[in-house]
Queue: 3 jobs
Job 1
Amino acid sequence: MNDEILKECLDAKARLVALFGDLETYMEFMTKKQEKEMKEGKKKYIDLPIVRIKKSETPDA
């Protein structure tokens, strides 16, 4: 089942890259779209994705 989900995610990423060139361009497009919707009163907030930073497994001490 996890393999199916991974394959779907990779396929979706490939489609986005084919449309926008890269994922950063897509994120810029979506951010501008959400900002426009906020100005028009369609949305009250911007729904940004959660970015998780992996902690290093080795202690810093």
Note: The mean pLDDT is 79.
Job 2
Amino acid sequence: MSGAMGKPTRLTGTPEWVFRWKPRKSPLVPKLLALLLVGLGFAFLLSLRIKVITPARSTSQAASVMILRNDAQGRAFTLKADEGGPFPSRFELSQWQGMAELEAVAWEAVKPQPKPYAPAMQELPDATLLRPLELAVSGKSFFPPRLLAEEPPPVTGPQRLHPTLFPLSGITRENLPTDLPPYEEMTEAGDWRFLLQLNAAGVVKECISLESTGKEAPAALVRWLRRVPFKSSPGQAARWLALELKFTNSLADGTEPR
């Protein structure tokens, strides 16, 4: 069966086969030539010898140190080392000898020059405008007229204490209220400092005394401060400020003294 499949038979009366089913005979010379060239190349590569040499260090790890004194010889060696070394020396403008002269010239150029003072000459007043000098008569005392100082009229009428506010922190003098409620108590005179908490409408919610001695503020002062109308601040829910309260004497309102 294998022999029948290896060599097909052509039927009688059929045309020639399209393909050649028998293998073509190739010449042997090209094959031998290619094998010879590959062998020669391989033999040439085997004959090569590559010599690997370890490179020597280009820089030396040793160094020398020279200690120079601060004298003429040492400065000369230092200058020579700076000029002949691998790093060029930098020019220092401050060490230049002509720097002081250059600064003096520049300062004279920009220094403001004051104008020379030239007094203006004026004519003397006429002799007729001068008042005659009054001389004292011999044997008679002469004194200049006495000018009496004007004294303020004395304050008459009953007086009372008037409270005045001064800003310390959190408020300016322009924002202080000008229309203050009347204060009827006259026994709490002196200077007081308070820490106030205001709401958005300007009403006093908290009143704390800031006296260093720990003395509590009188209840009348606290009640009076709670009635002081401050400016409203719609954008702030609560704000703190510090004030100083002083009392000054003023005439009492009305005819009855208080």
Note: The CA atoms of residues 200 and 233 lie 5 Å apart.
Job 3
Amino acid sequence: MNRTRLFLASDQMWPSAINATYPGASFVARARISATGRELAPAFAGSVADDLWGVLVETDRVPAGAMPISVWTDAGHEFDAHVLGGALLNGDPQSVYMASRYWELAPAYIQQLREAVLKLGLDSADEEPRDDGALGQATAPQG
């Protein structure tokens, strides 16, 4: 079975959402891409600078319209992956922020998302984010 890597940076990066959309997906790493020149959801377009963080998962299928991309993990490794077409950080802004906290993405990045959520007049929720889904761990990634 051919597995591919998918970079997720939206409200769909909750484990339960990943499991529902990509059954059998495995977590690979937290990852980042350059935000420069990327289409971002309007809620975050003025707040995210430099790096845009998300999660890298392995899945059995590449969604229609996904585009090839290079990502860098928080450990500094570069991987080929795919990213969904359209704006990154799309979906419910508060959910994007909470999912980023759940995955413990880069603190400076989470702060940028928090500031965007606050500008929208949304609660930045001080409680720990929780999700009922769990992703399997991918085997040692081949870079």
Note: DSSP finds three helices and six strands in the chain.
